[in-house]
Amino acid sequence: MSDITSLTLTQTLKALEDKEFSEQDLNRAYLERIKSFNPKLNAFLEVIETKLGIPAAIKDVISTKGIPTTAGSKVLEGYIPPYNATVINRLLENSVSIIGKTNCDEFAMGGSGENSAYGPTKNPWDITKVPGGSSSGSATAVAADLCVFALGSDTGGSIRQPASLTGIVGLKPSYGRVSRYGLIAMASSLDQIGPLTKSVEDAALVLEWISGSDGMDSNCRAEKWEMRGMGEIRGIKVGIPKEYFGKGLDPKVKKVIEDAIKKLEELGAEIVEVSLPHSPYALPAYYIINPSEISANMARFDGIRYGSARQNFGQEVKRRIMLGTFALSTGYYDEYYAKAAKVRTLVKQDFEKAYEKVDVIVGPVSPTTAWNLGEKVDDPLKMYLADIYTISANLAGIPGLSVPCGFSEGLPVGLQILGKHFDEETVLRVGYAYEQATNWRKEKPKL
Amino acid sequence: MTKYEPVIGLEVHVELNTKSKMFCRCSADYFGKEPNTHTCPTCLGLPGALPYINEQAIDDCIKIGLALNCTISPKSLFERKNYFYPDLPKGYQISQYRWPLCVGGKITLDSGEVIRINRAHQEEDTGKLTHKGRDTLIDFNRSGVPLVEVVTEPDFTNVEQIRDYAKKLQQLFRYLGVSNADMERGDMRLEANVSVRPENVEGLPNYRVELKNINSFRFMVAAVEYEIKRQIAAIEKGEKLSQETRGWNEEEKCSYLQRSKEEAHDYRYFPEPDLPELRIEESRVKSLESNLPELPWDKSKRFEEEFKIKRVGAQILADTKELAEFFERALEYGKKHQVSTQEIANFIINRKPDINSVLPTQIIEDIKGKKVGVIDNDEVLEKLANQAIEDNQKSADDYKAGKENAIQALIGGVMRLSKGKADAVSVKKILERLLKI
Amino acid sequence: MKLTKDQVRHVAKLANLPLTSEEEEKYSEQLSKILEYIEQLNKVDTTGVEPTFNVSGQENVMRKDEAESSLSQEEVLQNAPKKEKGLPAGQAGFFVTKGVFDK
C-alpha cells in the first residue's frame, strides 16, 4: 500500500484504530521507502528495523539508549548513550518506535546540512539543493515520507528553516516547554527540541506527548501542554514586522508570503503592522551568545570518557568554539558577551511591546528558497545571514511555527508564525486555519 | 633594613555531607567505593546531561554564611568556570563568581583579631586522579559532590592565626552538621595566598603566590612559613615577584612553581544557562538562622561566663557539640547530687571520658564515688586513729615494742570505725605518727 | 576587530583545539570578518538595560536531597576508548589518560 506512507500522524493513528492496516504493515512500508530513497537523500545515519509502533525519525543530536548517536560528527562516531533523552521516553510511552537517527549539521551548527561529517542530506524537491539545517535529515525524512514524523532541534531556526525549505511543518516550542535532557547541547539558553511533521495537527499532538517537566531540566516548565482545540481565527490580530520585508528578502519569496498573509486576512484575521526595531542587532547578538555557550558545551569532548580527539571537530564547530572562547576571554566579556545579553533583552522587549498590539507575528522563515549544495560553504558569514528571520525567536524564547505556504520556482516556501512565550496554542491555531484553507500540504516531492 | 610583613588570605573548601550530589541524584557517599559506580550522565559529563540544584546544599551554604556573619545575597547565580583537566568531566565547573550566595562576613580569632570573610559560595567537586606509572587513572565518584568555598580577605599575618582559623572552621562545619571536615579524607581543603609587603605600608602587594594542592595542614603551615622567607629573600635581592601558583615538596622542604602568570587560567566565567537564578527569600534566611545551633565560640564564651570556667577549659568543653551537650547534661545531673560545676569540668577535661560509651550520669557517680567513698581529712582521721588506739591498747603497745605488723590491727580498727571509708594510706601515716615514741 | 595569528593561537590553546598553521591563518581571517560584523552591536545604546541570560521564566528550581541509583560501572565505561597498546592490566573500573602531573 503506497498510500500508507503519505498519511499524517493523525491519519495513521485513526487508520490503525480502524484496523485499515497493521503496525507491521506500517513499519514495513516505511522501511521499504527508506531502503529505496535514503541512499540518494542521505537523510538517515542509522536505520532500525522496527516492527511495531509509530515509526519516527530522531535527529542524531538526541540521545537514544543503546542506539548510536553521532551528532553528525566524527568525534562521536560509535558513541552509544547509556540513557534516553526525556523526549524519547515520552514518545516510547505513546507507542512510537524509532525507525532511525537522522543526519544533521555537525553538533547542529549550520543551516544547510552541509556541515555533517557524514555527507550532506539532499532536498527531496531537488537533490542538487540543500534541505536546510541543522535538522536536515529530519526534514527530508518527513518531506519524503520516510517516517510518520520526526524530532529535530532549533537553536536559531534549525527546525523552522529546513521545514520551510522542504515544504513541511516545523515547530519550535517556547523555551522551557520541552525538556532538553538528553539533547546534545549546542547553545543551552537557545536550544529547544520540537516536531517536524506533515500537518499542523500532528505537530500539536507530538508537542502534547513531549512537553512538560521531568525533574531533570531545570529550565523546563512544569505543566504538560495540551491543545484545547483548533478553530477559526476570526478577529485574531496578526502582526507584520516591517523590518522583515526589506532588502535581502528574495522578491519571489516575498510575493508568496504576501499572498499567504492575504489568505489570513480572508480568514478573518486583522493584519496590523508592527515594528521590531532591534531586529538588525539580533543576528550579531546571537552570534556572540551562541558561540560562547557552544565553546563551553563542547569542552566535555576530551576523548577520555567517550568520543575521539578534538582535532576531529569540523571547521564550523572549531570556528564557533574559537569565536566563543574569544568572546568570553578576559577583557572581552563585557564588550561581547555582556553586551549581547543586553541586546537580547531589547530584542525580547520588542516582541513584548508588539504583543501588546497583536496575538501573533507572521513573516518569512528564510530570505530565499533552497540554494545549491556547495554554494555557501566557503563563506560562514553568508551562511549566518540566512538565519535573519529565525534567530530572534530563540533569543526571546518565544514559539515559532513554519507552515508550507507555496512555492517559488518549484521550491517550497514556509510561512513563519511567532507567538507569545508559552502561547503555542494561538500559533498552532493560526497555522491550522491557514493550512486547512489551502492545499499546499497535498504537494509531495517526486522522488 | 626594611622589615617585611606577610599578607595572607585563605581559601577553604569543605565537602558537604548531603545524601545526594550537588547537581544530580547520585549518592554523595563516595569514599572507599568501587570506582565509577556513583555516577550518572550529569556528574559524568555525558552529552545531553543537565544539572538540577540540591536544595539541602544551598541551605547548608547559607548556614555556613550566617555562622560567619555574612550577608545572604537576595539574588544568586551559578556560573561556568571553564578550564580543561581530566578530572573535570564537562570541561567546566559549575561554581559561583559574580553573584555568590554569601558575602561580607567575619570571624574573631582567639587572639582577638578579626578576619574578614570575603565570600562563601557553592560549587561542585571534581573527580579523583591517581597516578599509575605513566598513566593517570580517573574515578568520577567524587565528581559533583557539593563543595562550599570560604574565602577570606588577606588579613592573616602569621601562621598561628592560620592554625586557629582552620581549627575554628573545622569546628564550625562539625557543629553545623554540614560536614565531617576531615582534612585527611579531603572533606576540608586549604589553599593560601601569600605575599609580603614592607611593614607600615598601606595597600596590597601587586602580586600573590597561591599555595595549592597541599593536602595536610602540617605541610600547609610549613609551606606558608617557607614562602614568607623565600619572598622576603627574593625582594631583598631585588627580584620582582609575580603572580604564581606553587606546590609543596615535602622531601626537599621547599615550594615549587606549578603555574606562572603567563600560564594562569583564564576561566571565562559566564552565567550558567542551564540553571535559572536563585532568589533567596527573607523567610528562608530567617528560618535557617533561627535553627542554627549555638556556635562553638559563643558556647565557649558562655561556659566561661556562666560557669566561671577558665578560657582554655571552656574551649575544650565546647570543642564538639556532642561534648558540650554531654557536659551540660552532666551539670544538670550533678546539681541533684551536690557535685560542683568545677569538679565536673575538671573531671571531663583531665580524664577525657569516652562520651560515646559513658553516660553523663555515670560521670557524676564516678565523681561522687571518689568524694563520698573516701574520708581523707586528716583531722577526722586523727580522731578515729586515737579512738582505735584507745580501743586496742595491746596492738598499740606491741607496735611500740617493735612489732611492725601490729599496726594492721589498728588500721583495721579505724576502717571499722569509719565504716570502710577511711583512706587507708593516710590512716597508716597518721597512726605511725601518733605511735612514735 | 582584527585577530592576529598570535591571538588565534592563544584562543586555540584556551579552547584546547590543536590547530595547524594553515588553520591558524584561515581562522584569523574568517574570525576577524565575523567579529567585524558583530561590531555593529556597539551602535546600540544599552545603558540601564539588564542583561538576559535565561528566557525560561523559572527561578528557584531545586530538588529534595534524595539519592537514587547510578549508572552501572559497565555502562559508565562502555564508551571509553578501547585499550591502547601498552596499557597495563588491572585498571578495571577507571578511565585512563596519559600521565597528567603537576609540574
How is this structure best described in words?
The complex is a heterotrimer of chains A (447), B (437) and C (103). Chain A has 447 residues and is an alpha/beta fold. Chain A has a single domain, classed as Alpha-Beta Complex (Amidase signature (AS) enzymes). Chain A has helices at 9-17, 23-41, 86-93, 136-143, 160-166, 200-210, 251-266, 279-297, 315-328, 334-354, 380-385, 391-396, 424-436, and strands at residues 44-47, 54-59, 96-102, 149-154, 169-172, 192-197, 237-241, 270-274, 360-364, 400-408, 411-418. Chain A has an eleven-stranded mixed sheet, with helices on both faces. The longest helix of chain A is centred in the C-terminal third of the chain and has 21 residues, at 334-354. Chain B is of the alpha+beta class and 437 residues long. Chain B has three domains: 4-287, no CATH class; 294-372, no CATH class; 378-434, Orthogonal Bundle (Arc Repressor Mutant, subunit A). Chain B has 14 helices and 17 strands. In chain B, the strands form four sheets. A nine-stranded mixed sheet of chain B has the order 3-7-8-11-1-12-13-14-15, covered by helices on one side. In chain B, a hairpin with a 4-residue loop joins β14 and β15. In chain B, α8 (321-336) crosses α9 (341-351), α11 packs across α13 and α13 crosses α14 (424-434). Chain C has a domain at 5-43: Histone, subunit A, CATH 1.10.20. Chain C is 32% helix and 6% strand. Chain C is built from three helices and two strands, in the order ααβαβ. Chain C has helices spanning 5-14, 21-38, 73-77; strands at residues 62-63, 95-98. Residues 85-90 of chain C have low confidence and may be disordered. Classes of the chains: A alpha/beta (447), B alpha+beta (437), C mainly alpha (103). At the A-C interface, α8, α9, α10 and α11 of A face α1, α2 and β2 of C. β10 (135-139) of chain B pairs antiparallel with β2 (95-98) of chain C.
Q: Main sheet of chain A, how many strands, which sense, barrel?
A: 11 strands, mixed
Trace the largest sheet of chain B across and list its strands.
Answer: 3-7-8-11-1-12-13-14-15
N→C terminal distance of chain B = 76 Å
Shape annotation of chain B: elongated
Cα gyration radius of chain B (Å): 31 Å
> What number is the mean pLDDT of chain B?
92
CATH class of chain A: Alpha Beta
Q: Based on helices, strands and strand pairing, what is the structural class of chain B?
A: alpha+beta
Tally of DSSP helical segments of chain B: 14
Kindly report the CATH topology of chain A.
Answer: Amidase signature (AS) enzymes
The overall number of domains of chain A is 1
User: In the residues of chain B, how many domains can be counted?
Assistant: 3
